[in-house]
Structures are given as C-alpha cells and as structure tokens.
Amino acid sequence: MKAIRMVETGKPLELQEIPIPNIGEKDVLIRVRAAGICHSDAHYRAGRSAMGMMPITLGHEVAGVVEKIGSQVTNLKTRDRVCLHYNITCGDCYWCSTGNEQFCDSVKMLGHHVDGGYAEYIAVPARNAIPLPDEISFEEGATLMCASATAFHALHKGRVKAGETVAVFGVGGLGMSAIQLAKAMGAVEVYAVDIKQDKLELASEYNAIPIDASRADAVEEIRKLTKGRGVNVAIEMIGLRKTMEQAIDSVGNLGRVVMVGLNQQPIEINTYMQVLGKEAEIIGSNDHLLQELPLLVDMARRKILDTSRVVSQVISLNADKINQRLNDLEHFTSDVRVVIVP
Ligand SMILES: [Zn+2]
Ligand SMILES: [Zn+2]
Predict the structure, then answer these.
(1) What are the b/e assignments for 2-37, b being 16+ CB within 10 Å?
(2) Cα–Cα distance between 313 and 331 in angstroms, integer?
(3) Nearest ligand, CA of residue 95?
C-alpha cells in the first residue's frame, strides 16, 4: 500500500510502498477514507517531539471503513464506517483502570508513536474505532477526532453548566467547536475572543458574542458585558502569554480557567488577586478520552455541533502536496483546514 512517511527528522515526508499492516485478534484493519493534516504534524516533521519509531506514517485524525476484523472483535463488522480515537491505551494500568486513560503508562498515539493515517490502510485495536453515522462525512469524522474532541474535553474540565457564561480565547478549529459545545452544555452566553475578522464573523454565526481583541481590551469588554462579574469559565486555546493572562483575568469569583493552548513561556500570577481572592481555579486540559467520543459523534450527527465548515480543502495522498501543507502550517501562512482523501 501507499503511505506518506517521515523517514528523517526535519526532512520532507516521503511516499513509500509498504505492506498492508497485519492485525491481531482484537484489532481491525481500516481502509482510510480521510486523514486530517494537523498543526502537530508540522511539529513532528520538524523534530520538536520524539517519535515512537522511524520511519513512521503520520496522521492522527482518521476516518474510514472497516476492511477486516480480528477473530475476537465483536463490536464491529466489515464495511462499518468509523472514526478513530488516536490514543491507543492498555486498559489495565493504574491510570486506565481509574478512568484516566490519557495518562496510560504505555499510551501510543497514532501517527506519533505508531503508524498513522497518511496511508491507504491503518490497523488499530477495535475499541479505538468509533462508529461514524452516514450523516457525517469521513472528512468531518476525521477532524472531530482532534480539534472538536479536545474542545469537548476542555469544557468538561471547566465543568461548564447550564446558566453559565464562557469566554473562548482563540476561535480557530478548536474554538469554533468549543463555542457550539459550550452552548449545548447550557452556557447562556459565549464570548469569542480573536483578532481575525473572518473568525469572529463565523463565531457570531454560531451565536457567540464576538470580541475583537485587536480593537478593544478583551478583559474590559468581558467585564462590561457581564455587569462587572467576569465569566464563569474561560478557555484558552492559543498559548500566548497575553491571552493566557487575559483568560485568567476574565473570570470572576469561583471562575475556572482552562489552559489548552500549548505554550513554552511561563506566566506570572498574583495568587492573591487572581486565584485565591476569588477562589478561582486554573485547570490544565490535555487531549481527550475515548469515553467522550461517542457522545461527540452523536452531537455532530444531531447538528448540535456543526463542523461542516471546518474542512476547506481536500487533497490526495501525495507527498508534495502534504509537505506543502505542512510548510504552510509551519509558517502560519494559511488558515485552511486540509484533509487527505487517499
Ligand atoms: Zn490533530
Ligand atoms: Zn494504561
């Protein structure tokens, strides 16, 4: 089969002809129908994160059709449409058995530690394959498994509940899902903070209140709009020092700040003013859980979560095109969301 693989760190990915993977008795073989190209993939290619093996097929946002099932598989049959949870966990370690599989001692991520979806086929444990209803395209199914799932987990970590207000800092793919899911969880008002007009416009189409941070101070605006009280939950999706500080300042008494954007820069916090004085919480959120995905897929099927406008370009399994896209992501030259359809 054809696979687009990372052969050497910092070098363009290469097309290789490799055998179709074998499956174990609890695995399924998936014919890939869509694989999203994610910003993380650009980081992997550049060598900013240790890979589980080399060469490796990238791609962790995958949807497709079950081609073959192992002898012990009972939850799926051939021809089923599925999308894939990208973390393969053991199910038995302390973390897995306490419902916190994101910390599994032997977690392996598709397209990072084991071969991913930039290929014609991929093999995964059967429990990593989530049924994908006919109403959701493969391209959407693939992107649900990364950005939307991460947004959903972040809202769970922030314990958003009915009647609350939420501010989302950064309304790209993650943020756009966060807005809709926060509404679905009962948030009465969602503020979308960004500096890009087109994103703010799309956010308002999803019933968020746009705040253009290039024109006004986002924290002051939020204070004004919440009668001085601040929001209940702030979700930070960017990872810049400024937006992290703004997220912390935007919550009111008993507020929860959820940090999702990856960052390397430390920030300063006045613990009295910003945390203990208002009994605020600063919460980290990383990845998502298998158990969150069936509900997420169902919300997409019911159009509670609309991701139909996320995918803006489809390309073939072509190394040059994929490398070009990764270059664009590396240099932030485009906001276009690209999905590979092999
Ligand atoms: Zn991703
Ligand atoms: Zn485990």
Answers:
(1) bbbbbeeeeebbeeeeeebbebeeebbbbbbbbbbb
(2) 18
(3) 2
pLDDT at 333: 67
Question: What is the mean predicted confidence (pLDDT) over 264-269?
Answer: 88
pLDDT digits (tens, 9 = 90+) for 148-175: 999 999 999 999 999 999 999 999 889 9
Q: Which residues surround ligand 2, an ion (CB under 5 A)?
A: 89-90, 93, 96, 104
184 CA to centre of ligand 1 in angstroms: 23
Ligand 1: distance of its center to the CA of 41 in Å? 7
Measured in Å, residue 337 CA sits from the centre of ligand 1 at: 11
Query: What integer pLDDT is reported at residue 335 of this predicted model?
Result: 66
Instruction: Give the DSSP letter string of 230-284.
Output: -EEEEEE-S--HHHHHHHHHHEEEEEEEEE-S---------IIIIIITTT-EEEE
CB 97 within 8 A of CB 103: no
Q: What is the pLDDT of residues 112-156, one digit of tens each?
A: 999 999 999 999 999 999 999 999 999 999 999 999 999 999 999
How large a percentage of the chain has pLDDT more than 70?
99
Q: Which residues have a beta carbon within 5 Å of ligand 1, which is an ion?
A: 38, 146
Instruction: Report which of 191, 170, 173 is spatially closest to residue 233, judged by C-alpha positions.
Output: 191
Spacing, Cα 188 to ligand 2 middle (Å): 37
Burial class (CB in 10 A: 0-12, 13-18, 19+), 45: buried
Nearest ligand to the CA of 262 is: 1
Please name which of 328, 307, 35 lies closest in space to residue 174, comparing C-alpha atoms.
Answer: 307
CA of 155 to the centre of ligand 2 (A): 24
235 pLDDT tier (thresholds 50, 70, 90): very high
Ligand nearest to the CA of 91: 2
Q: For residue 107, which ligand has an atom nearest its CA?
A: 2
Give the number of whichever ligand sits closest to the CA of residue 339. Answer: 1
How far is CA 252 from each of CA 167, 170, 256, 278, 318, rounded to the nearest angstrom? 11, 20, 9, 7, 49
